[in-house]
Backbone:
């Protein structure tokens, strides 16, 4: 895709969602890490409901280790995969105490070594908590990138991330990540995307395919009316 087309996409999303931001509630990098860990295969809305009480009960890594695993499981049971996530939270907290004196490391390399923290989570943390430019590719970013032709349908999450990093100016990586999420969450949804109202329809192969049946139906209806 030409740089001019990429710039057009970024500018339109900027106009649509100028205030796009991380919607996971947190007050420090450690809480953000826990929230992103919990958000895997779960909506931010549900995570925020759970962390409202979770972050009041647990402030530091040692707090999560001071209770039995079963108690932590109950505290997050509304979250998908809560048992596995509870285990990872306690393992993560133990590693923070053993290796980092209870402090969250600030490098991507160190973060991905933490239990339950993958590349996406590390990207979210370094960009939102530590101001390091990064593009975290979640389900929304991946879907939007592929629909708009910024990445191929068969591209892996890592390939999508690399392509976006090449096309988007580095100082816009973090903001682009947020805007793609907002665009995918509130406009270009997995089901029933708002193609008829989309200002990026001309750039979207998927949208054009979805609109063809509608155009064909209108043409058929018009033909039927004329023939009567």
Residues:
């Amino acid at each position: 895709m030409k740089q001019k087309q990429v710039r057009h996409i970024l500018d339109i999303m900027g106009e649509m969602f100028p205030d796009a931001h991380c919607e996971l509630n947190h007050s420090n990098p450690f809480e953000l890490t826990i929230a992103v860990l919990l958000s895997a295969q779960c909506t931010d809305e549900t995570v925020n409901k759970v962390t409202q009480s979770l972050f009041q009960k647990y402030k530091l890594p040692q707090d999560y280790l001071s209770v039995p695993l079963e108690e932590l499981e109950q505290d997050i049971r509304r979250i998908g995969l809560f048992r596995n996530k509870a285990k990872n939270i306690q393992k993560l907290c133990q590693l923070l105490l053993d290796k980092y004196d209870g402090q969250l490391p600030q490098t991507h390399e160190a973060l991905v070594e933490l239990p339950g923290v993958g590349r996406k989570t590390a990207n979210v943390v370094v960009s939102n908590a530590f101001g390091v430019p990064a593009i975290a590719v979640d389900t929304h970013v991946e879907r939007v990138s592929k629909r708009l032709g910024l990445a191929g349908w068969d591209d892996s999450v890592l390939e999508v991330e690399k392509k976006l990093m090449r096309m988007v100016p580095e100082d816009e990586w973090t903001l682009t990540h947020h805007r793609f999420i907002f665009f995918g969450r509130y406009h270009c949804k997995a089901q029933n995307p708002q193609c008829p109202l989309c200002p990026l329809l001309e750039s979207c192969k998927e949208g054009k395919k979805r609109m063809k049946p509608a155009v064909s139906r209108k043409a058929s209806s018009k033909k039927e009316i004329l023939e009567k």
